[in-house]
Amino acid sequence: MSGGAQYVVAAYAVIWFLVLAYVVMLGARTARVGRQVEAMMRMLDRRDAERSDSETAEDRT
Amino acid sequence: MVTARGLVHAYGERRAVDGVDLALAPGERVALAGANGAGKSTLLRLVATLLRAQSGTLEVLGEEIADGARAARAGIGYLAHDPLVYLDLTARQNLELYGDLYGIDDRDARIDDLLDHVGLLGRSEDTVRTFSRGMAQRLALARMLLHRPRLLLLDEPHASLDARGAALLDGELEAARADGRAAIIVTHEVERVARVADRLVVMRAGRVVCDESTDGRDPMAVRRRYEEVA
Amino acid sequence: MTDGPARVPGQRAAAIWGVLATVLVVVSSIGVFLVAPEDADQGIIQRIFYFHVAIAIASLVAFAVACVAGILQLRTRDERWDDVGEASIRIGLLFSVLVVITGSIWAKASWGTWWVWTDPRLVTYLIVVLIYAAYFVLRSSVEDDRRMRYSAIYAIAGFASVPLSFYSVRVAESFVHPVVFTSSGANMPGSMLWWFVVSQAAMICLFVALLELDLLGRRSERALRRLAMRLESA
Amino acid sequence: MRRRQLMALVRKDLRLELRTRETIVAMVLFAIVMLVILQFGFGTRDDDLTRFVGGLMWVTLAFTAVLGVGRSYVAEREQHVLDGLLASPVPRTVMLGAKAIAIFLYMTAVEVVVIPLVGVFFVKGSYWDAIGWIAIAALLANACIALSGTLFSGLALFTRARDLILPVLFLPALVPVVVAGAGATHAVVGGSPDMSEWRGYCLFLLAYAILFALVSIATYDAVFDD
């Protein structure tokens, strides 16, 4: 590398790195939303299960 | 004088006023009661155009608040918990300021009249800092009446007025009915206000849960009714 | 109304812009490193110029978008404009930081020092970073409606400060020093100019793609919050 | 009507200031302390700081402006008067315009003391011939400070840590004013005044004031619109 090529590479590396880091940050947020959606689905499933339990119990009486 | 439909104001996720309908005719005096945090002060501030509703429509003195707030403000008298006067100005200077802000033509004569009316003419050249709480609130009463408002909005007026001020206010509310001026009085002391109010509106959790006439009813009965619903 | 929106709108737009930005960034990187001709005076160092200037202009675009979003927010009181404003300023701030860093590297490469107070671009972008960093300080210290309103007002005032900072530094420069370095498109050889245009397009697309992605995340979060609230109340 | 409201609000601010003497006296003292500290900060025994006079003066004025602007709603906030003003039929633009006029007057009062003092402290030689030119630049700068300062102090008013927020918002916006103010000062101080340079900086200050006047007209209405 001659005539300051290392500086050019460094400059572009910084740009790519920070932009990628930003994208990763946005991705992390999306992942968090996904996890929350899953948690909510589980909660709904459980609630449905409880409801059907109590309904069958009512049927018996 | 006031027409509110589906009024909503939220602080973040918490809806302090949650879909309120309210209509006020000329000469009507409404006691607005409710527990702490029921949204009555927020509702009063919405009507006073100090807050902006997030949804719903509000018409005050014939002006749609969304686009005519300033025109409505000229006809509103707002008495808050704080006197809304500068402590380092004299009583007269404060009233002169408000007289200019409201564009009153007979400013100086009007100020003399009102200072006399609230019993502060002798202290008119003293700064408000030297006043007692009751005197400052009487000055606030003069400030509120200065521009001859057609709609009076009072936030817990009896909590901070002295006996003399309270008597003046009661007289004013008495006269309001004959003059066709309307009033909303936010209060904790329902039986105290019931004497000068024609209607009781009770709020709970941002909603109106009771809106009925109190004409000719005994103040203690109104109090019991309030405790029932609140 | 049926259950909360199963699909958040804007996914396709975000995907298209994301692909476009990636392709353009790769193409322009290759072009800048391998295809574009070597500058006669500056040698290889001049290759920093392509992204450095393109990203600087893209950041101004971001701040302009935030300013317009601010005006629309004040007019409509719609929280979506607040989202656009904040996301744009965040990306613009990222880009401005990149301008300062790459500019600093450029200064080191050509003058042997990391910081040159007489280089107007470096100095003005430092001020721009300070202006827009303050935006987030302001946001973090107010809530709700006020936050949106204040952010919108500040986005407008901040965008007015940008040209003032630019111009003030340049006015000072023109009296004290002759401008040390200019790379205007006019005196660039044709192929250099062409690669600069591609880089510029890449950076603008990158901004739009990041913005779409950010807005998509915000919409999802908001939809999720609404759903959670309905579940709790049900 | 608007004129009457504007005059009433300005008169109110001046009356409060005359009675309490809180803001201007503090601003002047602060500016003097700043100048002395800056002199020590330079760590020089050299008596002639003519080369730095613009910087010394305008850094001092910028920090003094932050201090003064930070005080500009103290009475309204501490004595809870703001609702009274907001409930009255005053256009918000008039309210903030009155505040801008008050800030302009405070800054002018400070400069009446500070500019001659800078000459006495730091300049050896021909300063007094230039003082008129500096004063003109200072008046233009005051307009810039007043217009942007009113906006930023309105924004900072209801934030947490508002005393910290205001300088963070306000100082970056003041950079161009300091650059141009210092430039205009240097242009006319120290022997051979360069009037075209001075004119350039003054025109820039004028442009700043006009631009921020436009921003003010566009945004003042929204500052207090809850």
- Percent of residues in helices of chain A: over 70%
Query: In one word, what is the shape of chain A?
Result: rod-shaped
Oligomer: heterotetramer
Task: Return the average pLDDT of chain A rounded to an integer.
Answer: 82
Largest sheet of chain A: none
The number of helical elements of chain C comes to 6
Structural class of chain A: mainly alpha
Radius of gyration of chain C using CA atoms only: 21 Å
Helix content of chain C: over 70%
How many domains make up the coordinates of chain C? Answer: 1
End-to-end gap of chain C:
15 Å
Into which percentage range does the β-strand content of chain A fall? Answer: under 5%
Tell me the β content of chain C. Answer: under 5%
Shape of chain C: globular
Poorly predicted ranges of chain A (pLDDT <50, ≥5 residues)? none
Largest interface, and how many residues on either side? Answer: C-D, 31 and 37 residues
User: What gyration radius of chain A follows from the Cα positions, in whole Å?
Assistant: 26 Å
Helix tally of chain A?
A: 1
H-E string of chain C: HHHHHH
Task: Write structural notes for this entry.
- The complex is a heterotetramer of chains A (61), B (230), C (234) and D (226).
- Chain A has one helix and no strands.
- With 61 residues, chain A is mostly helical.
- Chain B folds into two domains: 1-75 and 161-230, P-loop containing nucleotide triphosphate hydrolases (Rossmann fold); 76-148, no CATH class.
- Chain B has nine helices and ten strands.
- Chain C contains six helices and no strands.
- In chain C, helix 2 packs parallel to helix 6 and helix 4 runs antiparallel to helix 5.
- Residues 1-6 and 177-181 of chain C have low confidence and may be disordered.
- Chain C has helices spanning 11-35, 48-76, 79-111, 120-140, 144-176, 190-233.
- Chain D is mainly α and 226 residues long.
- Chain D has one domain.
- Chain D contains nine helices and no strands.
- In chain D, helix 6 packs across helix 7 (131-156) and helix 7 (131-156) runs parallel beside helix 9.
- Chain D is globular.
- Chains in contact: A-C, B-C, B-D, C-D.
- The C-D interface holds C 71, 74, 127, 130-131, 134, 137-138, 141-142, 145-146, 149-150, 152-154, 156-158, 160-161, 163-165, 167-169, 171-172, 175 and D 148, 151-152, 155-156, 158-162, 165, 168-169, 172-173, 175-176, 179-180, 183, 187, 197, 200-201, 204, 207-208, 211-212, 214-215, 218-219, 222-223, 225-226.
